Recover the amino acids of this structure.
């Protein structure tokens, strides 16, 4: 197995956990994503709204999955994260009772925090007065608390933080976790992202921005990355967690190394609060930095899990940069056609899909891609999964504020 060298640092991916609109758990999520069937559906909690459909996690019962005593004091975004983190640790074969917790870190991405809890308690205050508000409001709504609660759950006593770079948050978290391993501050880091912000004010805000698809009569066809008639994204929730380890640590304990995080790049467009720089310069800079960090050239990349939000501007700019840098070689997909856009969780879910693509030699299709935008001249997988060797994959995430983050994943 390759060792860490001055030319590059490889973080071992030894565990995966996923809770997505395609299913609860890695197996169910991956099957749903590879089936290419959108999870978007009418959302009863948004009845009466101009856009009344989302991608929610189906059948998620926090009381059953976490226990009522734990679930009652946590916001839903932490519920999703804890289930994913527990699955990832079990997948990695790690027992928190036996590790040195001071060498275990947690880095999670999140954009909105416990916004549903905040909104409920704000309504309580308006209706019944401040004295009726929950004493758990602050620890339930805090953006940082997802990392804190994961650490409490598993006894991780090392560095503990949350990265907030909008829709790039989880990818930033994974890159930051790798930096902690490279610096020798940790042997193990749980890294990923979680989001559960499907509330009326949040959806109203996105609607007013013109960011959401308006296909209320056919929500299952609404998220259509790279499609010529795409009209916006579908809001989603979810969580993804990867267990990352120093390569030597994973090897010493005989862990199964599912893939490696070999490169990370980040940049800022410094252009606009919500619109991407049409030149794609910031995106290209992040991709270039990730490739340099991994010691790879564009020709070495077999597969790209694109940010691919199904918005006019994002898809066009991203595709333009991919064509310029990579030509038509990499097999490109956007799993958001199935899962919708889970904001701060998206990058972790998509990185996990990159690991699975490497492991299984299978690239999932982009849902609802019936007629590709003729201006998008890249090889987008559609219809059914593509069987192919994936030695190196890239996962792209771009957020409001022009914050870009890119990972390079490689086979072990």
């Amino acid at each position: 197995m390759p060792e860490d060298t001055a030319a590059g640092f490889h973080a071992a991916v030894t565990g995966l956990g996923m809770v997505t609109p395609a299913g609860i758990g890695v197996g169910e999520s991956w099957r749903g994503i590879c089936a290419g069937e959108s999870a978007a559906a009418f959302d009863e909690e948004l009845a009466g709204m101009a856009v009344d459909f989302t991608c929610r996690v189906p059948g998620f019962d926090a009381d059953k999955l976490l226990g009522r005593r734990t679930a009652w004091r946590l916001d839903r975004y932490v519920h999703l994260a804890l289930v994913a983190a527990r699955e990832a640790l079990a997948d990695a074969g790690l027992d928190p009772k036996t590790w040195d917790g001071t060498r275990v870190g947690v880095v999670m991405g999140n954009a909105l925090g416990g916004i549903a809890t905040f909104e409920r308690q704000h309504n309580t205050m308006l209706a019944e007065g401040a004295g009726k508000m929950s004493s758990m409001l602050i620890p339930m709504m805090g953006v940082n608390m997802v990392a804190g609660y994961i650490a409490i759950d598993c006894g991780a006593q090392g560095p503990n933080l949350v990265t907030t770079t909008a829709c790039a948050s989880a990818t930033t978290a994974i890159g930051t976790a790798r930096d902690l391993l490279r610096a020798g501050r940790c042997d193990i880091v749980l890294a990923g992202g979680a989001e559960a912000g499907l509330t009326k004010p949040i959806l109203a805000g996105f609607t007013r921005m013109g960011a959401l698809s308006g296909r209320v009569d056919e929500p299952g066809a609404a998220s259509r990355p790279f499609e010529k008639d795409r009209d916006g994204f579908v809001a989603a929730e979810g969580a993804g967690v990867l267990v990352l380890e120093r390569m030597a640590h994973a090897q010493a304990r005989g862990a199964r190394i599912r893939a490696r995080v070999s490169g990370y790049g980040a940049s800022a467009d410094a252009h606009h609060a919500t619109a991407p720089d049409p030149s794609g310069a910031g995106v290209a800079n992040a991709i270039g930095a990730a490739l340099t960090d991994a010691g790879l050239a564009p020709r070495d990349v077999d597969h790209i899990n694109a940010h691919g939000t199904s918005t006019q501007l994002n898809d066009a700019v991203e595709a333009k940069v991919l064509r310029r840098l990579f030509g038509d070689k990499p097999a490109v997909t956007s799993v958001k056609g199935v899962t919708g856009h889970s904001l701060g969780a998206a990058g972790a879910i998509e990185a996990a899909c990159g690991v699975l693509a490497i492991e299984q030699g299978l690239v999932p299709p982009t849902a609802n891609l019936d007629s590709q935008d003729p201006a998008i001249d890249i090889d987008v997988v559609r219809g059914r999964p593509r069987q192919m060797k994936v030695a190196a994959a890239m996962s792209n995430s771009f957020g409001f504020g022009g914050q870009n983050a890119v990972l390079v994943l490689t086979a072990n």
Observations:
- The first strand starts at residue 11 and ends at 20.
- Residues 1-6 have pLDDT under 50 and may be disordered.
- The chain has two domains: 11-252, 261-410.
- The radius of gyration is 20 Å.
